[in-house]
Amino acid sequence: MRRFLLVALLSALAGAAHAQSWLDQPGVVGSTTVELGNARVRLPPGEWRQVAETSFTYKGEQIPIIERVFIQSEGQRVVALAYTRSLKG
User: Fold this and answer.
1) Per-residue model confidence as pLDDT tens digits over 52-81
2) How many whole angstroms separate alpha carbon 89 and alpha carbon 64?
3) What CA–CA distance (Å, rounded) separates 74 from 42?
4) Could you give the CA distance from residue 86 to residue 16 in angstroms, rounded to a whole number?
């Protein structure tokens, strides 16, 4: 189900894709911070909204993994997508 959601979001992006203004500025970061395990990472500029989260254990081991999907939207269109996967920390 997660993969279907991701494919659907990526398909929606392909139809209405346009370059983000920050793409030609390497190193530029926004104000939204997400936690990836014990680290904090800043997403690119703009307003990001978390739309999905799941957690599971890696191959039946005791290694907890968290996956999250964040989107930027413009009206009714999704203009950017961020997918994170990290160890639970």
Assistant:
1) 998 888 777 788 888 999 988 888 888 888
2) 9
3) 20
4) 29
